[in-house]
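Appendix B, Record 12. Input sequence as logged:
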Amino acid sequence: MSTYRMRAAALLAAGAVAGGVTATTLAASADDTTSTPSATSTDPGRDGRPGPGGPGGRGLDAAALAEALGVSEDELSAALDAVRDQLRPDGAERPAEGEEPTPPTGAERAEREAALATALATELGIDEAKVSAALDEVRAAHDAERRQALSERLDEAVADGDLTAGDKASVLKAYDAGLLGGGPH
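Logged structural output:
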């Protein structure tokens, strides 16, 4: 077999492994990336913790945010309810039935983050910088938990012989780069 064909075969095999790992990882973390209509959801997720969601994006943990802001969960819930309509994008078209919504760009996400911090600060009578810092802190903790859970699932796959340590490192690298729906945002 020629060097070219061996490289092509190796690339195809690596792609198949990466694709399988990606599919497995995405399927395993599907519950972690779905959002619910309320940021103050108390419906437990598969691990018993409150589910993610809300106008702030991925994994807004209302209890942790309320604690970081020094308000009760009820106060935070009322504030989120009060600002929800003003945070909804104007003229945003809903996708047709069966179509996936287009994810926001990085600039749109940053704009929404700033709008949420401003609206919550105004509604709660708290300094906007404190609200922004609390949102960042809560999201960073959530992201760290998701990465740790992924790492533990990959450790199990390595222990079972389904993946190599190199495969695990590659998946975590892709996750950290935001290619698997995770990583810094």
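The radius of gyration is 20 Å.
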